[in-house]
Amino acid sequence: MTEDIRLNSSKLGTQEYWNNFYKKEQSNFQDNDEDTGECWFDDSDAESKMIQFLIDKLNDGELPVTETPHIRMLDLGTGNGHLLFQLSQDLSEEYEGDSEFQFIGIDYSPDSVEFAKDIAGKKYGDVNFEFEQVDLLQKEAPFLKNKFDILLDKGTLDAIALNQDPLQEFDGEIGMDVYARQVEQLMNKGSILLITSCNFTETELVKIITTGTNLQVWDKINYPSFQFGGVKGSTVCSIAFIKD
Ligand SMILES: C[S@@+](CC[C@H](N)C(=O)[O-])C[C@H]1O[C@@H](n2cnc3c(N)ncnc32)[C@H](O)[C@@H]1O
C-alpha cells in the first residue's frame, strides 16, 4: 500500500484549475501563434530526454514493440500536446526503422483538448494527431478498452496526486492509488509506460506504479543529481515500466 506516500492537496489537483489554465494559454496562442504554452519540467530538459530515450530504444531495437509495423503512442494528460508534437517531429528526423506511428493525446480538461487540437491544426497540419477528452480516473471509461504500445506521462500523475478527494467509484481510494490500475488497462503485454515526475522520488514512483499491477521497472532516464546534507537527489525522475 502507498498510504505512507501522500502529497498535500493543491489547486493543481482540480479540473477547474486546468480548464482555466488552458483557456488562458489558448487565448495567448490566438494572440501569438509562437506561444504554444508551458512546457512542464523544461528546466530539467525532461521532454527532450524522454523523446531521446524512446528514439534510442526504437533505433536500437530494444523496445518489445520494435517489430510492430504500426506503433500507437498515447500521451496521458497531454495538456498543450507539445510532447507529442515534438516527438513526432524528432521521430521524422531521427528514427531509422520502418514502423509507422499514431499519436493520441488524452486529457480530462476540455480546454486542453481544444487547445491541443488548435495547435495541431495550425502548426502541424501534415501529421495526424488525435486528441480526446478522457478522465483517467473514471471507472470503466469506454476509452480504457483501447490498447497502446508506448504511454507517456509528464506531470499528470503529479497533478493527480495533488488531489486527496476520495473517489466514490473506487470505494474511497484516492486518484494516485487508482492511476496505475487504470493506465494498465490501456497496455498490452510488453507495452511501455514512461513517466516523469517532480513530486515523487524514484522509490516512491516505483511503489505507486507497481503496487496492485503487473507493471515492472524496465529502465530509467538519468538526470544530473545534486547532493544536499549528505542526501543525493535530482529535481525530476523518469522511469519506464513494462507490462508483464
Ligand atoms: C502538469 S500538467 C502536464 C501537462 C502535459 N503532460 C505537459 O507536460 O505539458 C497535468 C495535466 O494532467 C491533466 N490531468 C489531471 N488529472 C487528469 C485526469 N484525471 N485525467 C486526465 N488528465 C488529467 C491536466 O488537465 C493537465 O493537462
Polypeptide structure, described:
The chain has 244 residues and is α/β, with parallel strands linked by helices. It has one domain: Vaccinia Virus protein VP39 (Rossmann fold). Helices cover 34% and strands 24% of the residues. Helix 1 runs parallel beside helix 4 and helix 2 packs parallel to helix 3 (82-94). The protein is globular, with a radius of gyration of 17 Å. The structure holds S-adenosylmethionine. S-adenosylmethionine is lined by residues 18, 40, 77-80, 82-83, 107-109, 112, 135-137, 154-156, 159-160.
Task: Summarize the entry for a quick read.
The protein contains 7 helices and 9 strands, in the order H-H-E-H-E-H-E-E-H-H-E-H-E-E-E-E. It has 244 residues and is an alpha/beta fold.
What is the H level of CATH, i.e. the homologous superfamily?
Vaccinia Virus protein VP39
Radius of gyration: 17 Å
CATH class: Alpha Beta
According to DSSP, the number of beta strands is: 9
Which strand order do you get reading across the main beta sheet?
3-2-1-4-5-9-6
Seen as an oligomer or otherwise, the chain set is single chain
* CATH overall fold name: Rossmann fold
Q: Domain count, please report it.
A: 1
